Amino acid sequence: VYSSRFLRFDLFSVSPPLVKVIAGLPIVVIPHSENWEGLDLSAGSRSEFRVGEDFVKANSDEFPWLLTLARWACLPFTIAGALFARAFAREVFDSEWAGFCGLLLWCIEPNILGHSALITNDVACSAFGLGATWLFWRWLKQPTWERAGIAGLVFGIAQLTKMSWLMLFGLWPVLWLLWLWCEPQQKQSQNPVSWRKQACQLAGMLVLGLYMMNLGYAFDGTCKQLKKFDFVSSMLTGLDTPGEVGNRFRGSVLGELPVPLPEQYVLGFDLQKKDFEYWPRKSYLRGEWKQGGWWYYYLYGLWVKVPHGIQLLWLLAVFVPLWDWRQRHLGRPTLLGDSPCSGRDLLVLLAPGVCLFVLVSAQLEFNEHFRYVLPTIATLQVFAARLGRVFEPVGETAIQSQTTVAPA
Predict the structure, then answer these.
(1) Percentages of the chain per state (helix, strand, coil), in multiples of 5
(2) Could you please report the per-residue DSSP string of 389-401?
(3) In whole angstroms, what is the distance from residue 369 CA to residue 385 CA?
(4) What is the model's pTM?
(5) Structure confidence by residue, pLDDT tens digits, 63-121
(6) CA–CA separation, 233 vs 230, rounded Å?
(7) pLDDT digits (tens, 9 = 90+) for 353-371
(8) How far apart are CA 28 and CA 88, in angstroms?
């Protein structure tokens, strides 16, 4: 409600504003009460919890209905994710059935289904992260300015869902270089787009994504000098104790540089980093409480919180193509047919989700909330959708089925 009504993003800055604003829109247009006495915007403050309690007390009778409206407003995020999953699976595996399976697997996965009804960032992060990856892959397949522009727009929206996708600014250039390096020599000679032009398109894509991120914050504090921030994480203050206010860049050349990010995005990142440096609560796993976390916490979560049937599909998506490879060399029929999906296609599909999983697992100060790895589950659901090719009519592809005309 705070972000939707005032277009300010300094409350609960650890999360970008897209989901908060969308969830708050139906509330600000209907009668309700507000109490901002607990609002504290000083450096390092997390007053969103006090403000939230005050809001519930001020709307004690109407709050269940207000919460329901806010949750309904977030449902389009999961619909977008389902459509992205269908489109990505259909195109990367060249199969209408694979596309249907991608849609189905998104819709039936319990973790995605459960969090779709909550006002959290993770389903939106999964949906638009998947959509951005699909559009980036389409640009790699056919690098044009139009495709680069569309990918950049969705990439920017993904940045407004959660800070997890900040890593794509570094990962996408690496994937592009690997894509070029792994490109067959024959395709290189047929590709009319030079690597220099592709580099310009990629740079434009990333700049457009950065612009969209700043636009989502209404350019609040964009290009503020680094020395003018008040940080609280030891990494950015240079102090030994997390929570102390400071700035290690003051008095240095780096401190004079403008930061091309929204001010509250930078402060939210700093506040999140402070939590990773010191978290007062203990973590829990399998009957054990301890200060800190476990490197295998989210791996264990995948085992106990994802249905074994879906886990089996993930394994089959790995081993069935290996079986087909053996059958093909023996001159026997295959299960998935002649799929055009190459190793570099799979690399682009899987890399963002896998990298996010590794980054989240590496944060060992505390372990909470399996939802942090929902984007990885979304990626694996699309990967498992390749099994839909089993049902594809022999010799038919998604493109052929779309262009086939019935005889008169």
Answers:
(1) 65, 5, 35
(2) GGGSPTT--HHHH
(3) 26
(4) 0.91
(5) 999 999 999 999 999 999 999 999 999 999 999 999 999 999 999 999 999 999 899 99
(6) 10
(7) 999 999 999 988 888 899 9
(8) 36
